[in-house]
Predict the 3D structure of the following.
Amino acid sequence: MRKDNKRTIALYMFPAILMIIVLLYLPIFINLYESFFSWGAMSSSHKFVGIGNYIKMFKDEVFYTALKNNMIFMIMSVIFQIGLSLIIANTLESKFMRKTQNIFQSIYFIPSLLMVTVVGIAFKMICSPSIGIINPLLELIGINAENIDLLGNAGSATFSIAAMSQWQYIGYTVVLFVVAIQNIPADLYEAADIDGASAIKKFFYITLPEIKDTILINMIITITGSIREYDEVFVTTNGGPGYASETLATYLYKVGFRNDQMGYASAIAFFIFIVTFAIGLLQMKGYQLDE
Amino acid sequence: MKRKAIAMLVVASMTVALFAGCGSKSDESDSGKVKLTFLDKHPEDEYKGYFEEAIADFEKENPDIEIEYENISDQAMKEKLSVLAAGGDLPDIFFCWGGECLNRFSRSGKILDLTSYMDEDAEWKDSFLPAFLSSSVYEGKNYAVPYRSSVLYMLYNKQVFADNNLDVPTTWDEFIDVCDTLKNKEITPIAFGNSDKWYTMWYVGQFNANFVNKDVRTADYNPSSGAFTDEGYVKAVQTFLDLNDAGYLGKNVNSKDYYQVREEFAAGKYAMILDATSQFSFYKGAMGEDGYGYFKIPIPDGATGDEASTIVTGGSENYAVSAETKHPDEAVKFLKFLTKKAQAEKQTKETGLPNAIIGGITEDNSDAVIAAAYETSEDYDAIAEWLDQCVDGNVSNTYMASLQEALDGKSAEDVMADVQKAAKEVADANK
């Protein structure tokens, strides 16, 4: 009976496993295989080039620009969506905020419900030097904004898009942190109060260790999200000016579907996969060690 | 045993259900009609109505054919064309620009050769303006039909010119004088915005045609032999950058876009704008027939190309048929319907989109300005296809990205060095 049971389980698992293999693992291997060829969807040639596409990638300046931009996204996301958002969550949970907590929580959370396209177009207008509001505001406080063009200058484009992304998603992690903090047993804080611990000490010695799991999960979400960064860039600058705000994902798309270099695009895609996979593994390992 | 059979059945149906969505579309609709898919790029309100009505009229004339219409934006179209071809599932009938955009489909045999249909119906073939029909010819064969034609002009706001006592410039020096006068009065002379990257290509494509000989250009625009080493290309880019450096194009050009600046031009914020005849109807609507005028783009100083004085950037927009369509005859029938003279005239009258039919644009179906612009365009012997469409995608994207950087300080030589590198890569891949 037990043996038969196992077979039944295997039988019922089969469609789900088949789906995961065909739709997830198989494409990864096909992608790896195709990255060793020089080919385009529009051309009939399909030439084996070995690791040529990977050599090309590591010699490509735009690839490094994109990588750097992904790093900017990653660092800013960790600072804001983990660091700042923890502080906000902790403040919302403190006693004097209890009454107004829900209002603020909603205010922070609402932007993350908006569509990226809508937010992107709105920020494109806000940042525009001719029709936007940021430049006039800078002029008002006495800064010469004549040469400031947030999305149009190579130096500021990536930071502006990353800032928009923080504005949008900070509320999301705030809510996750608030929930985690609410689950911490109140007696821990009561004990700390009796011992006369300050708010800052309580934050570092009770709150942080207790919500470590949530922090780790949010880290995985924000870091892998910033490596896969695509939509915000696409809507606002589309990688411009020049290649200044290109990310790996937007560059991959352009190489593949605009320039029709599918082999090279496959190589970039595999690189992104390796990076996200490695980060995921590292984080999961760190997670297990803590258990 | 019975339970086992049921379990197997459940598993089988689950497996099948997973992949149910992956199957190919059926091309017969429920009513047993022939169904044709049609991908177009006219979702704007002023155009959409006409095309929908034309399809309805066609379906009324041919009750056994049903057209499934998909209508996406210009920018989306550029990407969709590549994406669709990559998926191998082209619509039966689809929009495509002329030049290399179409040639890449023709070369790989993905679109239907229309030569035999054209030979059968010489009247149809001869009704097109030859310059525009020629942009869809590849190796002597017809691969598409033009339904819309366009050439570039410099437009000016008559009110702004009158307020500043300016005459319409006919030479490059006069043009620069006009720009200087306006700039000294703190009016930005030329409306320009480049956040979408393609707008520079209109200028540079025109200047390339002015500075580079025809044979050299033809060889360079072909992906298998592109080199872009002629020094005329650097001069062309430099001519454009000089306009920007002199401040004629205004500030922060990389964060403004074409649609924004043309509205501002219509509102009198700028004096001139480079635009194509296919867009004149917008200015007519926004400024009135008497509000705007046009003049030929002056030929830059030192332009030594053999066609310098007789060429203008322009192009055709075409409809092509997928080589894999199951109903080629019906698809061609639809193309003929859209491009027959009466229908083409209706298209121009109702949408302002100039057709590509001989004698198809008159004061009756457009307006005096557009009709005159088409008459003026007969002075030009040659059409230089849109630069962003007529070269390989890799070269064109490099061109556009580098030009965007050039507006931010990069030199003309460096722009062309980037383009040469991309062209070499493409040429190597096409050998």
